[in-house]
Recover the amino acids of this structure.
């Protein structure tokens, strides 16, 4: 087993809210796992724990036989917000991680060029970060993450700010990279379609406390056709599960807000 | 557009000088409210500038003051950085030392003059001491808040890319906090410049503050006025030409301006 989560729980002490409760998950090497669930159910928190940026309140996370205690370049994260450095330009941002990895200078340049071309941003390589669009920022962040070539990729809604056209292109690229390099990917998304398109298994999470509600294997061959009836049926089935809990939360919040107002 | 604004500035200064001349003439010549030697006049100041320039007093005073303030400011930056960084590094210091520094920082720098004289006498060191005490603590606080306010996501991203803590400081925290540092240095500079004058007026070393006091001793109001104007001009010039320029450059590069 490549990545194993043993009943991981996370409680933020300053809020005392159980954000994650008894998350157990086993991921094979090379697996593509998508995590879906309502906003606020703890998806980003879960990725942070695996990244080693935060520690579980209880339980343990084992990667490649070793327990995770801190962050490392073997688990690159692509954050929900692009997290690029505004004092560096596009290319320097991609080079940033490569410098830490200690490649020779010329190799760094080659890798940066390769991935910037992959996300179609090579002609913007000298642009300062504030002069590119939100979607372009996400693509730079994607290039920066991929350039590090780590075996485990943790991606938090990486394509959420992109237009359909770009999503389509990048999905293809990501799938290709995943198949070619046999990376293990944990991919958080709000789009069930994306989850069914990419995953070997879809992890459906529920909120309050954040927990795994269901793990659904996706049996379809690749490349997948998002218009195939089986695909659509499975997508709708998962969507209804996610929506169910989302609607429940919306109702709860509404009631609470009303209660507050009456008080 | 820019030329028009510049012309406006010039016009304002001409009006200001005319007003000054008017007030001088009114108070000394028309109504005899004041004795001419007690009121500075534009012509008198102009004469004084020429005189102080021709005998070299002004230039040596400016050079002396600038060297002294640079030296003191450099020490302040060093002490301020060490102090600021230690407050960030140790929670204990943040809880106990920081309030103390906040308190000391409100103290006008002239209050350090008695200390300086008792410890160092009327020496160069005494003035430097006043400059350092006047500016180091403000710099320390701005270094601390600059580092504290680096967005955590920058640090997280670097950590997941395998950046070690030395490089985290050099390549993420320092550049991220740079705008705050420069703002802090700018403020520290203005404190240092003021503190320098507090120190210089009480000492007998060559400098603008000393020349100012000579003007007082000679009852030469025009010399006093001249030196005050020079002090203002140098203060503004360094603020605008060095610190504000650096600040703008940095902010512009990041699209924050
Ligand atoms: N540092 C923190 N301190 C306290 N509570 C936190 C912290 N980080 C997250 N939370 C709480 O944990 C819960 C889960 O947050 P998280 O960001 O993991 O949600 P998410 O599933 O990623 O949501 P979204 O889909 O909107 O990104 C939220 O209720 C949030 O308020
Ligand atoms: Mg999230």
């Amino acid at each position: 087993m490549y990545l194993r989560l043993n009943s991981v729980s996370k409680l933020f002490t300053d809020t005392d809210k159980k954000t994650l409760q008894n998350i157990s998950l086993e991921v094979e090497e090379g697996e593509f796992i998508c995590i879906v669930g309502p906003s606020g159910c703890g998806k980003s928190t879960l990725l942070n724990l695996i990244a080693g940026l935060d520690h579980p309140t209880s339980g343990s996370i084992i990667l490649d036989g070793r327990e995770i205690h801190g962050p490392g370049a073997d688990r690159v994260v692509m954050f929900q917000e692009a997290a690029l450095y505004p004092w560096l330009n596009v290319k320097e941002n991609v080079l940033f991680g490569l410098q830490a990895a200690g490649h020779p200078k010329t190799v760094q340049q080659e890798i940066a060029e390769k991935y910037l071309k992959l996300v179609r941003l090579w002609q913007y390589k000298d642009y300062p970060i504030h002069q590119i669009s939100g979607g372009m920022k996400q693509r730079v962040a994607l290039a920066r993450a991929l350039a590090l070539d780590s075996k485990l990729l943790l991606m938090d809604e990486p394509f959420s700010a992109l237009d359909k056209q770009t999503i389509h292109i990048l999905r293809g690229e990501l799938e290709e990279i995943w198949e070619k390099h046999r990376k293990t990917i944990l991919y958080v998304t709000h789009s069930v379609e994306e989850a069914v398109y990419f995953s070997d298994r879809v992890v459906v999470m529920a909120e309050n406390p954040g927990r795994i509600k269901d793990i659904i294997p996706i049996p379809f061959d690749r490349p997948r056709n998002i218009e195939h009836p089986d695909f659509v049926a499975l997508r709708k089935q998962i969507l209804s599960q996610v929506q169910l809990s989302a609607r429940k939360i919306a109702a709860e919040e509404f009631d609470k807000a009303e209660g507050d107002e009456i008080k | 557009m820019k030329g028009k604004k510049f012309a406006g500035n010039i016009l304002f200064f001409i009006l200001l000088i005319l007003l000054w001349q008017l007030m001088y003439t009114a108070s000394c010549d028309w109504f005899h409210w004041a004795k001419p030697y007690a009121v500075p006049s534009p012509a008198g100041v102009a004469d004084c500038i020429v005189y102080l320039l021709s005998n070299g007093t002004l230039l040596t005073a400016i050079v002396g003051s600038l060297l002294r303030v640079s030296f003191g400011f450099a020490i302040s930056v060093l002490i301020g950085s060490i102090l600021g960084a230690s407050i960030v590094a140790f929670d204990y210091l943040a809880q106990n030392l920081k309030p103390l520094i906040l308190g000391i920082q409100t103290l006008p720098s002239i209050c350090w003059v008695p200390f300086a004289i008792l410890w160092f006498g009327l020496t160069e060191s005494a003035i430097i001491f006043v400059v350092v005490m006047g500016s180091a603590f403000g710099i320390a606080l701005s270094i601390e808040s600059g580092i504290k306010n680096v967005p955590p996501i920058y640090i997280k991203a670097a950590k997941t890319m395998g950046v070690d803590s030395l490089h985290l400081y050099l390549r993420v925290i320092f550049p991220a906090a740079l705008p705050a540092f420069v703002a802090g240095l700018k403020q520290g500079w203005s404190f240092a410049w003021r503190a320098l004058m507090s120190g210089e007026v009480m000492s007998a070393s060559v400098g603008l503050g000393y020349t100012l006091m000579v003007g007082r001793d000679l009852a030469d109001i025009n010399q006093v006025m001249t030196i005050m104007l020079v002090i203002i001009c140098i203060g503004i010039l360094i603020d605008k030409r060095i610190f504000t320029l650096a600040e703008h450059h940095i902010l512009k590069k990041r699209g924050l301006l």
User: Anything to note?
Assistant: The first strand of chain A starts at residue 3 and ends at 12. The beta strands of chain A are 3-12, 17-27, 32-36, 58-63, 66-67, 75-78, 152-156, 184-188, 201-206, 211-217. Residues 259-263 of chain A have pLDDT under 50 and may be disordered. Residues 86-149 of chain A form one domain.
